[in-house]
Amino acid sequence: MASATGIPEQHPTTVEAREDEPLLGTPGAVTQKEGVGIHHNLITGTATVAQAGIWILVALVWSGIFSHPLIFFSAHPLLNSSAILLQVQAILTLQPTATPKQKRIGTRVHFSLLAISNLSFIAALTIIEINKGDHPRFTSVHAILGLVTYILIALQASVGIIQYFFPSQILGSVERGKKIYKYHRLFGYFLLVLELATVAAATQTTYNQAVLGIQLWAVLVASVLVILGVGARIKKHKLGF
Ligand code: HEM
């Protein structure tokens, strides 16, 4: 629109909104509003799609486990699926934050959720390793993918803690820590996909096919919902694009 001076007028909020534009959907739906509690971020915009997907995934795993006699192994899928549920909540919480205050609170919630999530992953790995006993290890696609996932999660968590809590001590300055943020975000999204792929691969294990019967197609449908719901809220500028 032209102004009285003849120079095209650009409304500042429009410019800001365009910078915040997610891959899909409208920016307003995924930017946390001033004075609105952080918990709203768990359901705004396409978060509902992601929530539907992750709760379906958890329901699939938990109903598979609880509809059979519980054994020591049962804790492995229960803990791993709970850990992924928490990872999704941690991502959804932080995505719409915009002001410094929102980001500070968001990061603390993100960190707390991921701390519990990562403890669950560690417990799940410990349980499967004890459960393996003398049997050969890392023989299935799920087992190899799972191990790679656990290692990358440990790496991602370490980088996250360093970049935010100890940037000066370990990287030399706060600015250097901030430069890593976009890689941490990108890698976080990649890790989520890897975690979902590991669950999909779990459906192909002998134990699942013989006993639990969790269906691959159902896990894939739930995973697609998670990826679409989370993916649509990605802000391109936060990834450095
Ligand atoms: C992100 C989530 C998960 C990760 C990272 C993961 C990781 C692993 C790892 C590393 C092993 C191999 C242990 C070894 O060979 O020494 C394993 C085994 C196993 N997991 Fe998972 N797991 C996950 C989720 C699940 C789920 C949801 C199920 C549900 C069916 C499951 C079922 C199994 C079974 C049956 C085994 C034993 C078979 C084998 O070792 O190939 N896992 N998991």
SSE arrangement:
Layout: H1 12-19, H2 47-66, H3 75-94, H4 100-132, H5 141-165, H6 167-171, H7 174-202, H8 206-212, H9 216-231
The structure holds protoporphyrin IX containing FE (HEM).
The site of protoporphyrin IX containing FE has 28 residues, from helix 3, helix 4, helix 5, helix 7 and helix 8.
Short description:
Pfam families: Cytochrom_B561 (PF03188). By secondary structure, this protein is an all-alpha fold.
* Small molecules (ligands, ions, cofactors) in the structure: protoporphyrin IX containing FE
Largest sheet: none
Give the percentage of residues in beta strands. Answer: under 5%
Topology, number of strands: 0
Q: How many domain regions? A: 1
* Number of helices, counting only DSSP H or I runs of 4 residues or more: 9
- What Rg, in angstroms, do the CA atoms define? 21 Å
Looking at how many chains there are and whether they match, the oligomeric state comes to single chain
